[in-house]
User: Fold these one by one.
Assistant:
Number 1:
Amino acid sequence: MTGIGTMNVNGVAIDDTFAEAFGMSGTGLVITADTMKWAMIAATTMTGFGTSVIGCGAECGIDCEVAAQDTPDGRPGVRVLIFGFSPDAILPQLKNRVGQCVLTSPGSACYNGLDSPQRLALSAGPRFFGDGWQMSKRFGGRRYWRVPVMDGEFTIEDTCGVTTDAVGGGNLLILGRDRAGLLETAEAAVAAIAKVPDVITPFPGGIVRSGSKVGSKYKGAVASTNNAYCPTLRGTAKSELDADTIAVLEIVIDGLTSQSVSDAMRVGLKAVTDIGAAKGVTRVSAGNYGGNLGQHHYHLKDYVA
Amino acid sequence: MSGLRLRLKSAPTGRLDVSCLQPAMLTAESAATVARMPFEGGALGDLFDITAAGDTGTLVLEGATATCDGIGEGMRTGALIVEGDAGAYAGRFMRGGRLDIKGSAGDYLGTGMKGGLITVGGSAGNFTGAMTPGQKFGMAGGVIRVGGDIGERAGDRMRRGTIVVKGKTGAATGSRMSGGTIWAEGGFGPGAGPLMRRGTLIGPKAEQMLATFADCGEQDMVFLRLISRFVAAELGPLAPPPLPARVRRYAGDLATIGKGELLLTG
């Protein structure tokens, strides 16, 4: 049913197709706290409800943990990435997410996490929480705000870098005949992708089970279920699935650069094919819109060793 | 291309304005060319023995005394090493580069500077990092490190930048300060921070603290880590030990808006 050429690696069919991704804007922050536990809590909270720009306003995720010696204040930190359609679209997300989720988190501080000449006013919202008691300090080329809060001070950098060369929507579709094994395999791919710098997988646990198509039969819905990949609709609607496919999981990848997304695609696909058919994975494909909408195409065949 | 060494043939008998000795400009020329450059009614070669030596972009001024004024004034790039003392106005209006004074410096060191690094092996005079008469504001960026003590009114009308002193400061440090940081390892002299609006004074003790500074109690602030790491990165082995996790904070000067602070580490 694939309808397109395939390769076979370790018992897994790889479609000769490509992931179609879009240009986006992205920024990075380093969130620190007294312990890695609390840095991670702040980071997890501020990147919550950040799966898709369509419904969440931004796509957010945790890039990596940052060792204490590598953070501006010498405390354990977590780097988060935030993606949006444009820098202007990211700014209100920064204001709300940092203001509601980082400022409020005990012992936290928030710093720029992306070197870029183009800047966003990171502190523009949160510092005014100080109600006039906020103080600015500049050390070298970096300006910080100290906002008095109930556990001392919330420290936040004045600006953060933003890039318009980011890419959103790199993806892998993993098809299989065993839902549990498929999920385990997808988890392994997400874990491998997590080691690639400058990328996130913004969906829950990095995995999407409800891939979408553009449009809907209903007015007002901009996206709807990707019926061609829904196994329960096989036989009643045009399907892209083989007869033995009972589930499809998707991994969506956002990156600060096209190269980082490409690297993530490569390690993700390798993780899947390293496990091979042992856990019920039968096939890997990728989502695209015919190649006319997204500027970035990631061909699966390029990642097959 | 190498650097240049200028050795004063004899100690000046009066004040000598050497603000024109700019590393970036002079080290781009040969020693012979520099020796022919006009200076004080004669040529540079009349007062200095000039030889090519040292790293590219580095100017060494040997034999300078406390009557040599304006050393490194307005410097933007390069390095100027003073083997001896510096007079008044050393590093005034500096925007970049590095000025190392092996001996002591006179009054108005680094006044109005906006960038770069000044280190002084000995002590510095009054009005370090302050404003010079006729100017509206004092130091607005960069770092000054003094190995000994500094005189009175350091940081007068200072806006930004960092001054680190290994010894203690004279009276009225941070007067009329509106920003920036002064960190005195040896503590502050009498009456620190008069009419201070904003900015930070850090030290183990302060003599005769002004009544217009309010005790805010002991504080644990992330900002202390930032300044410790910044100073360590800027000064390397010259940097003081990191600040303790807790300091006692005094807010002032409440005779003005009171958004400045005196942080006692002792």
Note: Chain B has one domain: 4-264.
Number 2:
Amino acid sequence: MNNNFFKLLFAASLSILAIDNSNAAEVNLLNVSYDPTRELYQEYNPVFAKYWKAKTGDTVTINQSHGGGGKQTRAVLEGLEADVVTLALAYDVDQLYQKRKLIPEKWQSLLPNNSAPYTSTIVFLVRKGNPKGIKDWDDIVKANVSVVTPNPKTSGGARWNFLAAWGYALKHNNNEEAAAQTFVTQLYKNTAVLDTGARGATTSFVEREIGDVLITWENEAYLVLKEFGADKFEIVTPSLSILTEPPVAVVEDIARKHGTTEVATEYLNHLYSKEGQEIIGKNFYRPTDPEIAAKYAKQFQPLELFKVDKLGGWNVAQAKFFADDGIFDKIYAAGK
Amino acid sequence: MKPIQRTALASVINLILLGMTDVQAADSQALEKRIRELEARLEKLDKLSAISNPSPLLAKPAVAPEVEKLSKKVNTLERKLEIQDEVSTSSLKSLPVFEAGPEGYKISSSNKEHQIKIGGSLQTDARFFIDNDKPNFINATSTPFDNLQQRQARILIDGYAFKDVNYRLQADFANANLLPDAYLDYTHDSAASFLVGKFRPGISLERLQGDSDTVFSERSWPSALAPNRDVGIQIHGGFTKPGYKAEKVAGAIDTKNTFTYQVGLTNGSGDAGNPTTAARDTDNNKEVHARLFAKPFEHSGYSWVEGLGLGLAGSFGDPKNQTLSPQATLSGLNTIVDYSATRQGTVTANGTAHRIYPQAYWYKGSAGLLGEYVFSNQTLLSSVARSKGIQQDNRAYQIQASYVVTGEDVTFSGVKPIQNFDPSKGKWGALQLAARWSELDIDNRTFTILDPTKSVYRAGAWAVGANWYLNRNTTVRFDYEDTKFKGGAGTLAKVGDRPEEKVFMTRFQLAF
């Protein structure tokens, strides 16, 4: 009697523990994103919710978290339960696999264009009339120029900024790394403040009127003109910049736990749709859909772009420039 | 420069100085130095302005760009401090939280998903037996001596991991059984939680009360006829009335929800059983127990009955060759039923055993009542007459009442004084008075095996007590108990009654 009862009690215990209490009718998603994408997702999220409702009848509410890309990655690794991440660079997303296996190893191949629904680049924003006559990277390392750029330790955009400057310096110094390091050292010596994220840097430059030039995302620069007026600021497109490819991913481990895998996947897929690409173009990102890209091409200035692959790819770049005791730590300490 | 401009600029500089925090000390020193330099330059410019232009309305144009430059520098410094502040605050948010107080010492993760709490208890007793030097004690089974005893010296580690995996580890250095409690309790749902390890099985109401929360220093006989601890699994949960939210409660007892249950399967440690860590079960048979408890008038608005709790518990097992624990007097802790003192051979529990425990309590304000009755049946087998098992029907009950004369509420979880003991401020803590009656009846058939001159067949005890709560953690208890017996002395030819035991005890207790 006792053995049978034991088995029954054990089976009952397992049944109770196996209760699945996910609820698909009303779903919440958390999108953990980098700093300047607030306006993009403010516009995209209700559009996707409407699309999802029409498709499935379910109501989806998307909550956003924004901040410096590096900081956001750390937050997810430390327990912030993101269903999706839409971050500034592939290295940050990849950390979710490397450190905690929250996403599959081949995550970048799961969506088109290496999981980047849009691209962008790095430009300069100056005050109207361009009082310091800034035309290219050489001008921002001059002694009398004050620069605003975020901290590469916390901001994904800041790392793109650094690599863009480095790439330019290499090209104009016969690929000599020492010269590039001198160049970038002077740039950070000219830096007035190092905000934690791209949006903070915009605030410092635009609202606090700090600095002569802001190095920022192309979309962020256009947004400033739109919101604060083209009579107050100008965009200066450098001769050479870096092609930024901010990727997106479903955090599968967490989405599975929340029962949101299907809606999270479709949330990112829909960024590639015509509807999603239109919103991307309207918010000054460069769409990857050729038709929509052609439609919005005129709003961007042409410039020469290089990819991060030229510097060895993100794993090499992160270790060389931005890891502890990397080149950034050395030049920032030297510039203080 | 206009005085108001100078004042505004100086105020900004001062605000920057005031806004600095300790975390920014290293950088702030550099910033402070820079600000002083700017202030000095500002003062110089001010003097230049005053000498060359007595009228404040006519500032020289040559000074303005310098002021604008300084203004920009101050802006930049301000922004740098804001960023530093943002980074510091963000770092502080991820730090664990440490708390120390009457509940013990707690460390919790910043996201509240993990916690460890360290507590403990110390109980030091003094027992003084009245008339124990009289001649009639010479023939008693045991002669109780006045004694001082370290009753408990425990360290308790409680906590949870990932919110729902609760644990308890309790070590007692004052007793032979080093590890009274060691269990995990998965409490994902208030309706059903899964506890596994060594714990108090949900049977006796008073046994489930915390050792530091009981009204008397020692529990009564119904507790002694249930296992003290056992190793096994227990499913438990709680429900509440519509309109109220049930709480997830970890551990062996749930005092928060209106309706609670426990259902468990254990090795079956026997009456007053408390297996050591190394102990193994001696047979394949297990014991099941179940308990239901309800506070049916909770949230009813009828204040006189809101604190009424009613329950029924029971257990069923079929032990084989299980050693039987002795029974003792309540406050005196002297053995009064000794299963090792037999007429011949040895005796073990061998065969079916069951217990039924109706139980109740009532609390209203400073007054409290608790009562429990047990019907206990087990099968005893003598090593000499192995074919003849005897059924032993034992009974025990208790009723206790208490009142906190200083006005604090009494609950199942004890008394929390409103004012801590501090005689210099005329504060004396809380005082609770209590009374109890308890009886133990051992089945007469037992004495076909046990020696009736060494074990009593009936004991009845009345007790009065006073508990002085100095603060939430410290209590001084005073108990007096008078126990009368039937049997347990004399000779086999003429069994007599064990002498009455009168004991006064005091306990100094710290629990946190």
Note: Chain A is about 50% helix and 15% strand.
Number 3:
Amino acid sequence: MSQWLANVIDRADSVNDWLSPARQEALTRLKETSWPTRRTEAWRYTSLHALENSTFTGSTAGVTAEAPVITGLNSIDLIFIDGKPTTDIKALTLPAGVTISPLTTTDTAMQERANKVFNQVKPGEHLFGMVNDALAQQGVFIDVAEGARIEQPIRIVNLVSDGVESHHRVLVNLGAKAQVTIIEHGAGHGHSMNTAFAEYVLGTEAKLEHYRFALHGQDAIHIGGSHFKMGESSRLNSTIVGYGSQISRIDTDVVHAAEHAIAKMNCVYLLAPKEHFDLHSLIEHAKPNGTTEQNARGIVGDKARAVFSGRILIQPNAQKTLAELHNRNLLLSRGAQISTTPALEIYADDVQCAHGATIAEIADEDLYYLQTRGIKRSQALIMLNFGFIQELVGQMPNKALAAWLEPLLRERFAMMEPQ
Amino acid sequence: MLSIKNLHASIEDNEILKGLDFEVKPGEVHAIMGPNGAGKSTLGYVLSGRTEYEVTEGKVEFEERDLLGLEIDERARAGLFLAFQYPVEIPGVSNMEFLKESVNAQRKERGEDQLTAAEFLKKAKTACAQVNLPLEFLKRGVNEGFSGGEKKRNEIMQMIMLEPKLCILDESDSGLDIDALKVVADGVNSQRDGKRSFIVITHYQRLLDFIKPDYVHILADGKIVKSGGPELAKEVEASGYAWLEDHEEANA
């Protein structure tokens, strides 16, 4: 038994709020779950050893994290530092059609609506999902009314300081034909521990533009997920960007619960030496005529390790599904590692699917082309290596976010590139 | 400016160039014509330094330097430019970034200051307008999703931006309709200043109606088999390349 988990269970017993019935149910399951080992399939390539017996004693005094400013984004910012809100959510002026409530809300009508999202999308068996169910008292519920088109992006910033453990939850409901952009922006300093799970329910013809940035430091432990339930003809455009950490694990799952939904998902990871990043994804097509396109690309620096496990599951009646899943990796040195398992599980006979995983190499032809214009080989290599992930950053629909992210990634990449 | 002597080059042990001699002086426009498989594109690749091609014999001097001893990028910075027949697409690198890097690499070599963002943009605007490419193309990945004609015009645009001393155009006319051909030719002609030299590689005489060469050479089986003035291109137009077989038999 992990000391850390025993401690979680202890603390969970004393949590008492309007979500308690759901929390207790998760806690019961949690108590029956054993600590993952290397033989546990979902954690096969990601060791939890660093967390197993850790304790987090709280923030060192005087360190105050600040939410990164993104020029031109003009977002509604909901800021949480070390698990506590620093934004007065009730005092925000919001566009018509959107309501944002802290999880600590006492408004029973909101509680009732939030309960229709809480644990309705996220799979039940994820160990840290259960931990989050039991302990996450902070977070937000965002409700976008039917037909409301919210132009202003909503950014949820979740910062964790050295020595702190925090648990954070995001619940989002999009009514029919509602449109919104949501950014889950996470960062952590020093040796911190954070679980952050988000659940999204998309109504008929709803459109969600989603971003998740897991930009935690190399000593941080970050485990979380973004989970989506697609309504009929709904649209999801999701981009996940991750740095590696001591442990960084993100699960992104999509359920096509109705027909004609389209999910486009990009993921980019850029791992500095010795970092670890694990992306797990399960896309389930439960109904016919759905479309999924998933592209995960990463650059892995020396002694860093990336794990990708992507599964597309097509249920027997999900005919006419179009699904593609690609994982491409660029290893910067011999010490870099990638464990990738793309999988298609198809139980319907009339579908179009493709999947693949590659360890990419820079094409000689591309290198030659840049050199014929006078660019030195070393510089051309940097441009092409970075271009490999920049292609997906360039596809982000929000240009202010792309413009903010690109130089950050470039800077990080410049430090990684072997000279 | 360029002097090629007895050039032999192979790819995967297949000899393509078999003793090519050729001289270009400043300001001259040379057309190289010939049937498919004669080694026309190989000549461009070998001069640019493509590593798959091995030079087994011969000498190439460019501006009094040993061209074959230079790296690909050094050749480019020395003033050699190859406009590709099939330029590659590089989605993650924007045209803007690519052009800036190239232009500044060349300027650095010449001891000139780097262009400011405003200066660069002004220059790029003019070059784009000259070949009829919308400025938005600069934001897209290098040749990403460009049509065949757009790729060719992008090559000419780069040529205009980089101001090379010697331009090699590898079938810049192939696949173009007459309007696109005129745009490419106008772009090239605008760069003729009496000092800059051109080697125009083409299968058809058509391009040479728009880019008037000083000399025409026929390349067959890795060698130049005939040289002459612009009238030689007309001859080829009229009789095709079939006479080459007779020529080879006569040589045998």
Note: Chain A has one domain: 3-363.
